[in-house]
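Key result, reporting period 2: structure in, sequence out.
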């Protein structure tokens, strides 16, 4: 399957954030970006934000005020694995690594290695999670 072909499993959706396309309608994602954008939406949504689907999202936001240490990284790893396993059926999560950003002490770097089930394409998503440091 070529990167530009359409797969029923991968599908197409609105671009995120929503935007107007070149022809004046809603912009749609390219198939190769659809899964990554869906993963970013899952990780960026706290459970309870969506009224009609209150369980949707990732509990990562519960760690917003946590210290940047090994325990916080382990909890973040668990939350990310659970959320993507629950809400993104088009992928298999192979590995989740979480570690402090060496240049920014208030940032946890979340690396998700995953395989797209339809194409067996291995990919990696890097998601910076910003903690609010103690004052």
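The corresponding designed sequence is given below.
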């Amino acid at each position: 399957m070529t990167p530009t072909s359409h797969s029923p499993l991968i599908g197409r959706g609105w671009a995120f954030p929503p935007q107007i396309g070149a022809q004046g309608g809603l912009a749609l994602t390219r198939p190769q970006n659809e899964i990554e954008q869906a993963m970013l939406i899952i990780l960026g949504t706290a459970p309870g934000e969506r009224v009609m689907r209150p369980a949707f999202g990732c509990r990562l936001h519960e760690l917003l005020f946590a210290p940047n240490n090994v325990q916080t990284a382990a909890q973040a790893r668990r939350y990310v694995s659970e959320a993507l396993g629950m809400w993104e059926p088009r992928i298999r999560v192979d590995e989740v690594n979480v570690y402090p950003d060496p240049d920014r002490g208030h940032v946890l770097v979340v690396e998700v290695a995953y395989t797209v089930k339809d194409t067996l394409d291995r990919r990696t998503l890097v998601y910076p999670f910003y903690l609010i440091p103690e004052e």
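Residues 1-5 have pLDDT under 50 and may be disordered. The chain has one domain: 31-130. This case is discussed further under Risks and Mitigation.
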